[in-house]
Amino acid sequence: MDSIPANRRLWNRISSAYQHEHDPQIGARPRLWGMYSIPDAHLHALGDVTGKRVLELGCGAGQWSRALAAEGATVVGLDLSEAQLAAAGRAMGAARYPLVQGAAEQLPFAAGIFDLVFCDFGGLSWAPPHLAVPQAARVLARGGRLVFNVASPWFEACYDEAAGRVTTTLQQDYFGLHAIAEGDGATSYQLTYGDWVKVLRAAGLVIDDLIEPRPGPGTPNGYNETDPPDWAHRWPAELLWVTHKP
Ligand SMILES: C[S@@+](CC[C@H](N)C(=O)[O-])C[C@H]1O[C@@H](n2cnc3c(N)ncnc32)[C@H](O)[C@@H]1O
Questions:
Q1: From the CA of 104, how far away is ligand 1's center (Å)?
Q2: 71 touches ligand 1 (CB under 6 Å)
Q3: What would you measure as the largest C-alpha separation in the chain, in angstroms?
Q4: What tens digit of pLDDT does each residue of 65-75 get?
Q5: Is the CB of 26 under 6 A from ligand 1?
Q6: What average pLDDT does the chain have?
Q7: How many distinct structural domains can be found in the chain?
Q8: Which of 55, 69, 126, 178 could form a disulfide with 97 if both were Cys (CB 3.0 to 4.6 A apart)?
Q9: Is residue 228 part of a domain?
Q10: Please, is 198 exposed, middle or buried when counting C-beta atoms within 10 Å of its C-beta (0-12, 13-18, 19+)?
Q11: Which stretch is the leader sequence (predicted)?
């Protein structure tokens, strides 16, 4: 299924409202992961990027990319949505970096040219992973790393559509996850733990870590309501995969 046109339309339509609502949180400080803005300094997922060639896959308004560019990485920000890229262009700081319009499913780059490909609820949440993971692996140099944060299957399986919140009751089939309708044909993607392992290994990647970011009690979720409010302190809301290309 080709969700590229519908996802592009969705993000062009919501970009302005999305940045208005979320940029104050996700752009507040450098290197904040996920729905709970947990600092990378606590999770140690990315490490030192100085001098590295970095691709952010689905960079949105570039909150991550501009931080890594300021640290001395050679960053490229890729996104499907021109509205999101325009927001990244406006927010770019003194450390300039190129922005490229493209899809995680069909990366417009030569093989082996990046030391790090990463995203935080970006291209690996919004493109079919069986297409996007091999593309990410292709553009990585040997020894390069693919690091990405996505919603956990726990979070998706406990999401109550009618109530609009995550609960303590299983609402969706775990084995039926995969493609999640986001309206008007737009789609996000979710795999089971086993399928993530299969897709990563099939792309020739080695799994180094699976970090389960755990916010402290009382840490607000900037995106979704949960019941109880400290849901993610008790169950894993996100999966932060750390892999490399041998
Ligand atoms: C939730 S944002 C992630 C950016 C940033 N980390 C954030 O949290 O705002 C999702 C981004 O993925 C982009 N996107 C959606 N589908 C994509 C695709 N197939 N390839 C690349 N980017 C895509 C959207 O345009 C959007 O900017």
A1: 9
A2: no
A3: 47
A4: 999 999 999 99
A5: yes
A6: 96
A7: 1
A8: 69
A9: no
A10: middle
A11: none
Q: For residue 158, tell me if it sits in a domain.
A: no
Whether pLDDT at 158 is above 80: yes
Q: How confident is the model at residue 1 (pLDDT cuts 50, 70, 90)?
A: low
Ligand 1 atom closest to the Cα of residue 19 is: 9
Coil/strand/helix, residue 226: strand
Q: Counting atoms of ligand 1 from 1, which one is nearest the CA of 104?
A: 20
pTM: 0.97
Name the closest-CA residue to atom 16, ligand 1.
126
Q: Which two structure tokens, joined as six digits, stand for 69?
A: 């560019």
* Ligand 1 near 58 CB (within 6 A): yes
**Helix, strand, coil tally for the chain in percent (to 5):** 35, 25, 40
Tell which one of 56, 84, 149 to mutate to probe ligand 1, the residue whose CB is within 8 A of the most ligand atoms: 84
Testing ligand 1's pocket by substitution, the residue of 19, 32, 79 carrying the most ligand atoms inside 8 A of its CB is: 79
Phi then psi for residue 237, to 5 deg, are: -90, -20
Is any atom of ligand 1 closer than 6 Å to the C-beta of 32?
A: no
**Has residue 183 been placed in a domain?**
no
How many other C-beta atoms can be found within 10 angstroms of the C-beta atom of residue 48?
A: 9
Token output for 192? 């089971």
Question: 139 in ligand 1 pocket by Cβ < 6 Å?
Answer: no
Using an 8 Å Cβ cutoff, are 95 and 120 in contact? no
Whole-number Å distance, alpha carbon 122 to ligand 1 midpoint, is: 4
What is the domain extent for residue 105?
4-150+193-214+238-244
Q: Is residue 40 part of a domain?
A: yes
Give the pLDDT band of residue 44 (cuts 50, 70, 90). very high
